[in-house]
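pasting for ref
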Amino acid sequence: MSLNLFNYNNSLFSGFSSNSSGMSNMLGDYMAIRNGSYGKLLKAYYAKQDDGAKKTAGAIRRENALKKSQADSEEVKQYKDAQSDASTLKSAASSIRSNSKLFEQVEQKTTDENGEEKVVVDYDRDKISSAVKSFVKAYNSAIKSAYEQGSSIVQKKAASMVSETASNKNMLARVGITIGKDNKLEVDEEKLKTANVSTLKTLFQGSGSYASNIERKASDMASMTEQLAKTATSNKSNYNRTGNYSSFATGGIYDGFF
């Protein structure tokens, strides 16, 4: 058998030609590794990835801080609402308790069935009714706001007022005041305007009366919620509304790391 050198050489160099591209790529990678270019590319790539991870961590931190700050603000608002309502109840109870003239008979002009005007001596039922309704409205608001915030201490104060009201339930019913849903008071105005004044005075006049006891409890609640609001304000997050750390001069530097 004879050897065809032309075909053999042709086949040999053909193989070299087909592998030249792969060899070129391998040599290129080898040179990149040898001169350090490949290492620089890897460092740059992973540095970028780490930087992105840090920025993500910083964004999460600021978002969580913002949520906490908003929650703290809501807590403070609830305390202040409870304080305001308790102060209003204290004032309403004090007003009706200390106004001795409210339950005194006064001269009033009236018109008889013949259209003739005359003077009679009687209690000013409209003023009494207005004062009692103001008290009831303030009482209901104070109870509501106390139970809408999370402090068990404040809720116990509200429960104490509810208990005081329950112990006077029968007497209150005689003047048209009943305990309704959520321990709120309800007023029957017609019954209130015709109620026995002696019963009204017992409930709402002088020290030791129902109004006096509620006034004291409302005062305690107002003082307590005021202090709780101050404490919550001083303890709340040091992040501002954008989530940046802002309590100290170093805040900007600290944020710069993220």
